[in-house]
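Dear colleagues,

As part of the handover before I leave the project, I'm documenting each prediction I ran so the next person doesn't have to rerun anything. This entry is a single chain, and its sequence is reproduced below.
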Amino acid sequence: MLTKKRLALLTIFMTMACFVLLLFLPDSIAGERRAEGKIIFFSKIGFLSVCIAVTIAMILILLFKREFVRWQTFSFGRYKYLLFNLVKRDFVSRYRKSILGVLWSLLNPLLTMLVMTMVFSLLFKDTIKNFPVYMLSGQIIYLFFSESTTRAMGSVIAGEGIIKKVYVPKYIFPVSNVLSSLTNLGFSLLAFLFVFLVTRAPFYWTMLLIPIPIIYTFIFSLGIAMLLSAMAVFFRDLTYLYGVFCMLLMYLSAIFYPISTIPEKYMPFMGLNPIYQYIDYFRNLVLVGEIPGLWKNAVCIGFALIALCCGVYVFMTKQDKYILHL
């Protein structure tokens, strides 16, 4: 029987095993990993080891909780119509009663890009080639994460009326908000393509791989959304603090300034920012025409999986107490 004590010991053992494996993995397979200092290098190795171990531990929990998984699968299939209607309602109500309606999904990123370009192009026009594409490529990834997690954070609280009347899977509410933001991301990509064509930026075939960083960002955002939606039920002040955090995250993600402006000694710490990793992945495909190596993908997947596992675990373990705090 897989007890909590045995699971904890197994997770520690898997972390140590993964650390040794990643440490001696040749650069010919993993790519260049030692560009930073030893402390940051070992921190990244340790982080990825924990990500792999926690993911395996979560898989083991699911295997030993087959009845729970079977019930959740059944309930998702039973209430998928509710998920569809929640996403549709959010999309329709967002621009309801506005003259342009859904067109704002296209105009909003374009107008924001125009304002940001007017402000920052004078500062960085000599250091960033094709600044509009550079800025918009970072903006759409950041806005997707910020919008999806911010809206999902209060989703369980907003669904109080439904939760108190009938039984519905509570994870439907944060998932619907993330999917709704993913729909808006699709319109933002159309705006990005428009800017790409207008500025006559060079086209690389690697642009066809854009769904990869979007999937990484989606999984990461979904995990953070479930974590925040669970915590916000018990700590309502989190909704105000998170806005400040998102503002700080925006300035730490190199959205509108070149990464070269950051002092060399602080550069390794940028790798600890998941959003910057996803933005950098996106820009490598669009602006450079390069496919990030295995090490870069491992870091992005690690951030996504650790966020998803933590978010699902916290949400599922606390969901029975939500009704007492709504």
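The chain has a mean pLDDT of 78. The chain is about 75% helix and 0% strand.

All the best with the project,
I.
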